[in-house]
Design brief:
Blueprint (H helix, E strand, L loop, with lengths): L2 H10 L4 E3 H7 L4 H9 L3 H6 L3 E4 L2 E5 H11 L2
Antiparallel strand pairs: 1-3, 2-3
Helix pairs in contact: 1-5, 2-3
GO molecular function, one term: DNA binding
Keywords: DNA-binding
Protein name: DNA-binding protein
Length: about 80
Amino acid sequence: MTTTVDLLLKFTGGSPLLSQTQLAGVLDRSPDGLRMSLAGDNDLARRLNPAKRKIGKRVYFAVLDVAKVLDETGV
């Protein structure tokens, strides 16, 4: 099973977007820790911020982009 399919089935129920809380679970971090990491200037932020999608005040991450980052980094 590919990373994309695994993320879609396990975390989103088929939705193409992950919430910050779901992404924190995937990366085994707390939601606040993830938020702080993404606000900084580091490798994780540079890789994941392009996957960010804002809908109203909420922030989501595209599953396809997150899966690509996970595959590239081997997390």
